[in-house]
Amino acid sequence: MSLMSSPVEFLELLAREAAAVEFEGPLVAARAAGLPAERLAELEQAKVVALRVRALLERRRRREIELSGLYDTASDLAGLRDLDDVLRAIVHRARILLGTDVAYMTLNDDERGDTYMRVTDGSISARFQRLRLEMGDGLGGLVAQTGTPYVTSNYQEDERFKHTGEIDGGVGEEGLVAILGVPLRLGSSVIGVLYAANRSARPFAREEVSLLVSLAAHAAVAIDTARLLAETRSALAELSAANSTIRAHSSSVERAAAAHDRMTALVLRGGGVEDVAAAVTDVLGGALLALDAEGRQLARVGQIAEPDRADMVEAVAASRTEGRSVRRGPLWYAAVVAGAENLGALVLRPDGELVDADQRILERAALVTALLLLFRRTVAEAEGRVRGELLDDLIARPLRDADALRSRARRLGVDLDAPHVLVAVGDDAIAATGSARQRVLSWATTYASTRGGLAAARDGRVVLMLPGRDAGGSARAVARDLSRVTGRPVTAGASGPSAGPTSLATTFAEAERCLTALGALGRSGQGASTAELGFVGLLLGAVGDSGDRDVARFLSTTVGPVVDYDARRGTALVKTLEAYFGVGGSLARAAELLHVHVNTVTQRLERVGQLLGADWQKPERALEVQLALRLHRLRTPAG
After folding, report:
1. How far is CA 494 from CA 393, 473, 504, in A?
2. d(Cα 386, Cα 401) in Å, to the nearest integer?
3. In which region does residue 461 sit, left (phi positive, over 0), alpha (psi from -120 to 50) or beta (all else)?
4. How much of the chain, in percent, has pLDDT values that exceed 90?
5. Which of 72, 142, 399, 531 is 20 to 30 Å from 192 at the Cα level?
6. Do 90 and 215 contact (CB within 8 A), yes or no?
7. 408 — phi, psi (to 5°)?
8. Which superkingdom (predicted)?
9. What does the alpha-carbon distance between residue 128 and residue 195 come to, in Å, rounded to a whole number?
10. Rounded mean pLDDT, 468-472
11. Radius of gyration of the chain (CA)
């Protein structure tokens, strides 16, 4: 047997670390040389043994690389300086050792109750790098929740995990298919997840899972070490702070005196809540949020998030009861009150600890804020009365001196010669209590003034004069926004645009008629204009309070049988009648408009004749039917 067909060649292949496919070469040569079957069997056995040896050597070589990587990681931990650098090194080694396209790490956020992306290596998607996972969502959320490794060879098609649009979108944008995730354990707690992922389907061997678990253990040690270092630094800082407390107390007294002088000057020169907030943060540092009684922002200085609603309500109530500022977590709360009335709160996130003198500064700022809010309310009420009186004079009959009214309006920043729409708000917006009526009028005054218009209460209703030409849009906006304020549906009728001050009274009368027509049409809680209701709206507006009953009776006697038939049978007789009258009684054109055959239109109209009587097309009856159809359409507007 030649050397080329002997088992020795397998040793030579092993020596030069040949690829697995090359081990078939000796067998191929032996078969070509015509060696007997027993010799071929020996060579086949030698090949199998050689491949086993090759696999063993490969595993040992890979294990050496893994151990070297773990040793390097341990060395990094021994010289830990920057946590981010160590975590990046661990994630990078995970990617290299497992031969994956991407490796990344998420850490649990105890405050938000989810887990977020901390470090990535090989990632190309910004969306993926910003992912946050709820506990239990996706592969990573499940690992973080259960503390158990999970692996998938094709994530998008794996139904074991709870898929969400945000997670699947990030994974899809990154192009990941196969994912392995193992928990970062710190004692019995899971603090995050370490991942290795591929952009193509692949299995992960048990040895790869074990390797990633080892790297995760190193990462957890790094995080815990960084925490201990931070705690050590904090302890040293506390010792240093004890020494500076005495100096801080002395300087706090000086700050209190300076703050008192500054806020006194603010009141004297007519400053606002924004100025108070700026003064407090200049003196105490940090960030401050000023809120009104409804929790709406009055002023914000610095970076401070909206506090939790429940925590804020409890803290403000405690501050009001105790008559001083209170602390909840990192925030200080001071109630803004005037007597028994709650006007709002100041929320301070200081840079450091507040001593008693600093707390007095915050409390004095709350007192000054209350004074400014009361003053602003008084000014606003006075201005509202002036603006309301002007609008009342404008819509009164007969109109007084137009030029004098123009002059009064100019002083309020209103141009009466510009186009305006008048919006009349129904009685459904005003509850029985006086406080509710005042709240609606206050809202209307603010709503109109911020848009350069006017508002007033007149005959138990509220009327707004708003700049612009879109009467219907203005009515719908007022109805929508005021409904949110009152918590009940609000009806608003509008007319316009006006053509100078002399036309405003007429425009207002049309708006009132539109409001009445909406009630008669059964459209309470909506907004519309006279132009949108057309002649039917004007007709109903003149009917008065009995309009709703009259309209219902007229509809019932005129087209009620047709409407009821459509409702019962799901037919389109009403639509066919509208099309028929709309094209002047042409059967062919009606059929074309309805996209049906002429015979279908004829059959439908025969059914109408059976329901309404044979004389329904006579001129007098036809006019009544058309008017009833128009009323029916207005009572059930599209959309």
Report:
1. 19, 9, 12
2. 17
3. beta
4. 15
5. 72
6. yes
7. -60, -40
8. Bacteria
9. 13
10. 91
11. 41
291 within 8 A of 298, measured Cβ to Cβ? yes
Structure confidence by residue, pLDDT tens digits, 414-457: 888 899 999 999 776 565 455 677 778 888 888 888 888 888 88
Reported pTM: 0.38
- pLDDT at residue number 127: 93
pLDDT tens, position by position, 250-278: 566 666 666 666 766 666 666 778 888 88
Count of residues in the chain: 639
Pick from 289, 101, 279: nearest CA to 195:
101
User: Minimal CA–CA distance to 180: which of 220, 140, 214?
Assistant: 140
- Residue reference for tokens 């700050």: 255
> What amino acid occupies position 290?
A
Average pLDDT, the chain: 80
Alpha helices in 433-586 (DSSP H): 434-449, 471-486, 504-520, 530-543, 547-558, 560-569, 573-582
**Sign of CA pseudo-dihedral 303, 308, 309, 315:** negative
Q: Which long-range contacts (CB under 8 A, 24 or more apart) does 225-232 make?
A: 225/77, 225/80, 226/80, 226/83, 229/80
pLDDT digits (tens, 9 = 90+) for 387-404: 667 777 888 766 667 788
Signed CA dihedral, 385, 389, 392, 394: sign only: negative
Which residue do the tokens 């490969």 mark? 58
Contact assessment for residue 156 and residue 143, using Cβ atoms and an 8 Å cutoff: no
**Token pair recorded at residue 585:** 């009684």
Cβ(392)–Cβ(458) below 8 Å: yes
Centre a 10 Å sphere on the Cβ of residue 597 and count the other Cβ atoms it contains. Answer: 10
For the beta carbon of residue 100, count every other beta carbon within 10 angstroms. Answer: 24
Say how far apart CA 517 and CA 494 lie, in whole Å: 11
pLDDT over 60 (residue 80): no
Contacts of 181 (CB under 8 A, 6+ apart): 139, 140, 143, 149, 150, 151, 193, 194, 195
* Confidence class for position 193, pLDDT limits 50, 70, 90: very high
pLDDT of the residue at 270: 66
Specify the higher pLDDT residue, 612 or 126: 126
Evaluate the CA torsion angle 210, 212, 216, 217 in order and state its sign: positive
pLDDT per residue over 13-31, tens digit each? 777 777 777 787 787 777 8
Distance between first and last Cα of the chain = 94
DSSP string, 209-236: HHHHHHHHHHHHHHHHHHHHHHHHHHHH
What contacts 415, CB < 8 A, 6 or more positions away? 409, 467
With a cut of 50, say whether residue 205 has pLDDT above it.
yes
Q: Which amino acid is at 440?
A: V
> Are 637 and 525 within 8 A, CB to CB?
no
Neighbours of 251 (CB within 10 A): 12
Cα atoms in the Cβ-side hemisphere of radius 13 Å centred on 41: 3
- Contact call for residues 123 and 116 (beta carbons, < 8 A): no
